[in-house]
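Quick one - inputs below.
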Amino acid sequence: MEYKTINPTDAYKLLNCGGLVLVCTLSPENRYNLAPIAWNCPLDYEPVSRVLFVIDPGHQTFKNLESSREFTLALPTYHQKELVEKTGSVSGAKLDKYKAFEIPFHDAVDVDARIPDGVAASLDCRLVEILRIGSVAIIAGEVLSARAIPNAWELRLHHAGDDLYYRPGNRV
Ligand SMILES: Cc1cc2nc3c(=O)[nH]c(=O)nc-3n(C[C@H](O)[C@H](O)[C@H](O)COP(=O)(O)O)c2cc1C
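Output:
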């Protein structure tokens, strides 16, 4: 095998975490919000599933998490790349993204959040811990309830950095 040297600042792109999530939250001013997060993964499964994701504390989503201490992870399909790019391009600090982008939604079940229609799955979570490391934060959450379409993993949208999006390949 011939290996190419990768710049350490780009090395994270090799560690692809998997599918994107849209973190859906509610602000202290009662504005519903959502933001795509690529850096997410499972944390535990017993006695219930726990999840984690990495977030910039400057994001409105972080402020919403601090105040509401709950969130829903909505898993976009590869048909929803445009939704991901739009909701990841602006802050919900002053803007209602659902209104601005005319996003059809349904209500989460166990969390006060709005889930965009058409996602592959959704996980309602309570916030367990916020861990700040340098300029970023890790959010740990516990799943209260979850819903998915059959074979949700096949439809998920993945992001590897920059404008590189992909969909899951064949099962091996
Ligand atoms: C594909 C994609 C993946 C992203 N992944 C992350 C991530 O893992 N962590 C993060 O803090 N921001 C991530 N972002 C950036 C936020 O989604 C973006 O800054 C968003 O506008 C924040 O919105 P908010 O201020 O309403 O929370 C990502 C954006 C895109 C488009």
